[in-house]
Design the sequence.
């Protein structure tokens, strides 16, 4: 064994045995520092003859490289062990609770209105709005309900004491139908709109609140008939209730602003005390429930809006938004919609990201 | 409107049952609201004869009967406590399984004091047929044993309750309904017999109309020597009672009967109470009358009355007067059959807030061609029931009986009604409803006098389609435009949707509260601009000037339920004098964070939480949040904490949001405990995004890294930190891209009345890194800008 080999064995042995970084550093200084043993050997190369240097030089350089590598390896090992030891002391109880992120919600009425907007957008209907404090003309007269009409009494209207500049009585709209009038007066047909919003009736009991939500639909075009109305309602209800098994029953009825007029019943069945929309109301275990009012827009209403009823005809319908929400999502108390009870809102409300889309599903 | 099946048969011949009637009515536009079938209640009760009656061995007051139930079987043993139970009595036996109407008890075979009883002999009270409970029902001895009692008593006539739509006055009488049913194929309408009355001499009291606008026709007749003490005939009384009308006297019952039978109101006056001529005229302003309901009404000169020399006897078409109504002693009567103009009746009724069966018919418009015949029909009934001698009929005025004609193209049933119906079928339907049809191009349709509602072709479409049945309407798809559905939401709608989802994402729950509040709730906001004339209650009276009252009331309710952290929001309208303003409002109360192992005590919300929420929502809504200025609040004094609220504005006029801590006395006003933070965002003030297409500007990140420098200033503690930051940011707009306050300190080392504010400034080099001299120059500018607002670089 040469001297270099002996040195190598001694140094690598000592490096491997170094128990901490300080000892390792001492070894490095002793071998590779300015006065280190290997540094000393390297210095002797300058005084050697070329032949001698040729034979000894590689041996010294090899020694230096091996020791350098051993030092680096040992250093990494010691550092790793030290980090592990440190981390071992940083253990946390991961079952402890993290800070809570508050969760908000969207009210079911808003959610259902978004659903309706999405469904009807696919059928080409825009969303229209109008004032809730209305005048007599838009809420009644233009809709073919003159002052002496018995239907006015059925509307349980909230009035304001003062008239507007045109001498019209001011009132809270009793239905979303005045938006029909405002739309027909402000845009050219063809028209396809829905108009959701708050409406008001002077009525309050277990199933009626003085404020509730309606959505109105209106189509004005050429050649529109009751068949289109039926298709539109079927298509809408199938999309909304997410079932193809929607059976409608149209019953003749009367609304001053439509002629002919139809009440629309939808078939349902009772399941665990809840009404599940779907199926033929005449089938075993099923029944009919009145859901919508509808009809072909009365010629007088079209004319009142300045359109020619010989050219334009169409249909209109109206349905309670709160009612639609209750039927789909299973609430049974209308009054709770307007209470702001956080427990109810958390239970029936919708997450901010549950945006109804056609691709993701209307009941997001 | 209620009808009974038996009454319907008076007008409609055919083989039909109550189920057919209900189904047909629903199909042709007369919604059935309910069917009351007394026969169902009386199922299991039958006529039976008591064969023997013995004393009960165990009880003094009971008897043991054997009863023949008429079913051919052995006599049944029945225990009975009625004192009148005796051998030979024919009564009503309830069999096991029957349910006693009065108490809902199901009868069963049971031992009574040791004797098995197989049923119950019933009293009238038990069957809800009367109040008598002194003994069991005693029927005539010849009553057929074994017959279901419902059949025997005639109490089995089913009553159908129909919702008559306001356009169909003609169906506010049984005959009108019968006509519609006949048109729909349910039986044949029987002809109406008009009796011929042989009048003796002229009317004993003159009648006339002095108000032909409101009362174009007033027909009448006097009848002398009637007897109003006689009982109303059983068949008439039973029908009236079945539809909920109390039998009053023969004359009143006759008048009511014809109203419900033929939809024709009439009025019968006691002539002894009349003085001089009976005249339809305008009421005098302030004139009053005591109506048949016992109430006094003060009239105006827009109303029409029937009056004589002594005063008003009848509010025309609405209600008769108490003074001249018929009584038991009435012997001479005057029968009024008039036509009143519907609009006038409606206005008078509305003004007096007086409803009656007559008003509901007159204001919808009775048949103007059915005055003379109706007079004869009512007279005949009076003569038959009460006797007497009639005068000839007087016809004062002329009813509006011009026949309306409507042009009609039978293809409309398909092109409007969605049902293709053969012209011949359409014609048959129309004729069965009383319309006259002249075919041609177009058809000329003569509208029957009783169909005031029909005046245009769509009305004819409705007639032919409803009688055909709307089941025949086939769905037809609306034409669809090419390609993918176009977006339909307006900018306002998108803004509202974004804000709603952003608020929910930030942890707030959306509430929907009443649009109306009380005066007290509106008061802190200067009151409401819109107060209802007829509120449902004082709590729901004023259109809200702010969303805060509704949300604060909801917060208080939640606190009362034990909620300790409240985050609520609402998007809705504020109703101001000029318009309705869409607004988002947030209320936060109680704990922002619960107590926890990391943070320790629970933390309350503070005004900066409100600021953060306002900024986050405005940013989410697409408002230029980085350009907003914080300025003083705009709301009335007393809404906000005087030192902890502000507005966010784009320029001095455009207030986008208001936020901060509410004034503690305001929170207390709405019974909310603790500090309350709130945000209001005014949707109308948020500028619409400019439509610049979907493409973004090119992405050009700076080549060099930004440089950060910190500056600490001493400033008077009255200096708004925002002003200092804005000054610093504006010191060298070419290189300073951001400035952010990161420390605020007052106390040791800082002179009294001063505050240390530390700002981090971000500098963005352009082509080459800053040289020391450049950095020095920028720093000098920053210090100079700060000095302008009163801040001095800390040494």
Sequence:
């Amino acid at each position: 064994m040469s001297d270099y080999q002996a040195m190598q064995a001694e140094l690598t042995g000592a490096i491997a045995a170094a128990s901490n970084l300080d000892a390792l550093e001492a070894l490095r200084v002793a071998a590779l520092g300015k006065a280190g043993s290997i540094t000393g050997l390297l210095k002797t190369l300058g005084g050697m003859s070329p032949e001698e240097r040729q034979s000894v030089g590689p041996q010294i350089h090899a020694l230096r490289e091996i020791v350098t590598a051993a030092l680096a390896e040992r250093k990494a090992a010691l550092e790793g062990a030290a980090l592990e030891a440190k981390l071992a002391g940083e253990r946390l109880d991961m079952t402890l609770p993290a800070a809570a992120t508050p969760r908000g919600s969207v009210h079911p009425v808003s959610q259902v209105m978004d659903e309706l907007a999405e469904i009807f957008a696919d059928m080409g209907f825009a969303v229209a709005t109008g004032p809730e404090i209305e005048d007599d003309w838009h809420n009644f007269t233009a809709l073919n309900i003159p002052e002496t009409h018995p239907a006015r009494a059925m509307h349980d209207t909230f009035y304001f004491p003062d008239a507007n500049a045109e001498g019209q009585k001011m009132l809270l709209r009793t239905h979303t139908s005045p938006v029909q009038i405002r739309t027909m007066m402000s845009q050219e047909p063809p028209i396809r709109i829905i108009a959701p919003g708050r409406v008001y009736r002077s009525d309050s009991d277990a199933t009626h609140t003085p404020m509730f939500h309606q959505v109105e639909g209106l189509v004005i075009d050429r050649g529109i008939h009751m068949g289109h109305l039926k298709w539109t309602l079927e298509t809408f209800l199938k999309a909304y209730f997410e079932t193809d098994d929607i059976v409608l029953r149209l019953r003749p009825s009367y609304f001053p602003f439509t002629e002919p007029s139809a009440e629309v019943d939808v078939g349902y069945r009772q399941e665990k005390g809840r009404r599940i929309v779907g199926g033929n109301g005449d089938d075993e275990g099923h029944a009919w429930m009145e859901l919508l009012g509808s009809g072909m827009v009365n010629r007088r209403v079209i004319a009142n809006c300045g359109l020619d009823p010989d050219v334009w005809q169409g249909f209109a319908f109206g349905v309670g938004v709160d009612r639609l929400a209750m039927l789909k999502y299973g609430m049974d108390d209308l009054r709770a919609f307007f209470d702001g009870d956080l427990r109810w809102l958390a239970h029936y409300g919708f997450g901010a990201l549950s945006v109804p889309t056609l691709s993701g599903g209307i009941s997001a | 409107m209620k009808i009974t099946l038996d009454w319907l048969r008076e007008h409609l011949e055919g083989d039909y049952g109550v189920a057919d009637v209900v189904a047909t009515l629903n199909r042709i536009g007369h919604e059935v609201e309910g069917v009351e079938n007394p026969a169902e209640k009386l199922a299991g009760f039958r006529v039976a004869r008591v064969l023997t009656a013995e004393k009960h061995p165990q009880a003094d007051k009971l008897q043991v009967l054997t009863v023949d139930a008429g079913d051919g079987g052995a006599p049944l043993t029945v225990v009975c406590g009625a004192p009148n139970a005796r051998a030979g009595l024919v009564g009503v036996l309830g069999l096991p399984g029957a349910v006693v109407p009065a108490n809902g008890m199901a009868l069963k075979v049971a031992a009574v004091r040791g004797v098995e009883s197989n049923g119950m002999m019933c009293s009238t009270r038990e069957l809800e047929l009367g109040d008598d409970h002194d003994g069991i029902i005693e029927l005539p001895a010849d009553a057929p044993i074994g017959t279901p009692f419902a059949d025997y008593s005639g109490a089995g006539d089913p009553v159908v309750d129909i919702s008559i739509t306001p356009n169909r006055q003609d169906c506010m009488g049984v005959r009108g309904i019968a006509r519609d049913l006949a048109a729909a194929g349910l039986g044949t309408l029987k002809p109406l017999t008009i009796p011929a009355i042989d009048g003796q001499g002229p009317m004993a009291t003159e009648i006339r109309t002095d108000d032909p606008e409101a009362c174009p026709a007033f027909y009448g007749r006097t009848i002398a020597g009637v007897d109003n003490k006689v009982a109303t005939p059983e068949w008439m009384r039973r029908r009236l009672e079945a539809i909920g009308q109390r039998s009053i006297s023969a004359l009143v019952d006759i008048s009511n009967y014809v109203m419900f039978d033929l939809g024709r109101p009439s009025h019968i006056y006691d002539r002894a109470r009349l003085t001089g001529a009976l005249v339809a005229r305008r009421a005098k302003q302030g004139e009053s009358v005591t109506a048949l309901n016992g109430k006094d009404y003060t009239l105006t000169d827009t109303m029409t009355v029937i009056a004589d020399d002594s005063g008003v006897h009848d509010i025309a078409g609405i209600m008769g007067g108490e003074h001249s109504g018929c009584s038991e002693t009435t012997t001479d009567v005057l029968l009024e059959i008039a036509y009143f103009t519907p609009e006038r009746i409606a206005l008078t009724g509305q003004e007096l807030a007086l409803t009656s069966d007559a008003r509901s018919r007159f204001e919808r418009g009775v048949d103007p061609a059915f005055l003379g015949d109706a007079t004869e029909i009512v007279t005949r009934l009076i003569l038959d029931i009460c006797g007497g001698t009639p005068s000839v009929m007087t016809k004062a005025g002329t009813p509006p009986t011009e026949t309306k004609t409507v042009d009609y193209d039978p293809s409309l049933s398909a092109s409007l009604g969605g049902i293709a119906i053969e012209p011949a079928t359409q014609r048959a339907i129309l004729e069965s409803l009383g319309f006259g049809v002249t075919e041609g191009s177009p058809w000329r349709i003569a509208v029957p006098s009783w169909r005031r509602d029909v005046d245009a072709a769509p009305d004819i479409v409705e007639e032919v389609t409803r009688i055909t049945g709307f089941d025949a309407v086939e769905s037809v798809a609306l034409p669809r435009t090419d390609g993918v559905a176009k977006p339909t939401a307006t900018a306002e709608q998108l803004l509202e949707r974004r804000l709603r989802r952003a608020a929910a994402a930030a942890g707030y729950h959306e509430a929907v509260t009443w649009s109306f509040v009380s005066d007290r709730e509106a008061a802190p906001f200067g009151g409401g601009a819109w107060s209802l004339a007829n509120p449902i209650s004082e709590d729901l009276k004023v259109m809200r000037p702010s969303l805060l009252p509704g949300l604060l009331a909801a917060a208080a309710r939640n606190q009362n339920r034990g909620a300790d952290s409240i985050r609520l929001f609402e998007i809705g309208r504020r109703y101001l004098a000029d318009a309705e303003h869409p607004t988002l409002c947030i209320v936060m109360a109680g704990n922002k964070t619960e107590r926890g192992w990391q943070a320790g005590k629970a933390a309350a919300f503070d005004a900066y939480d409100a600021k953060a929420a306002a900024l986050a929502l405005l940013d989410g809504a697409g408002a230029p949040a980085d350009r907003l200025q914080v300025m003083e609040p705009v709301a009335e004094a007393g809404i906000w904490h005087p030192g902890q609220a502000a507005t966010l504005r784009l320029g001095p006029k455009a207030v986008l949001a208001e936020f901060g801590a509410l004034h503690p006395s305001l929170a207390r006003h709405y019974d909310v405990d603790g500090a309350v933070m709130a945000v209001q965002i005014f949707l109308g003030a948020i500028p619409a995004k400019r439509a610049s297409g979907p493409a973004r500007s090119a992405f050009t990140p700076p080549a060099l890294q930004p440089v950060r420098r910190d500056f600490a200033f001493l400033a008077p503690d009255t200096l708004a930190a925002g002003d200092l930051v804005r000054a610093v940011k504006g010191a060298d707009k070419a290189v300073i891209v951001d400035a952010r306050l990161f420390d605020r300190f007052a106390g040791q080392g800082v002179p009294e009345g001063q505050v240390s504010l530390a700002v981090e400034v971000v500098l963005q080099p352009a082509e080459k890194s800053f040289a020391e001299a450049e950095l020095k120059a920028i720093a000098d500018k920053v210090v100079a800008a700060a000095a302008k607002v009163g801040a001095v670089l800390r040494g």
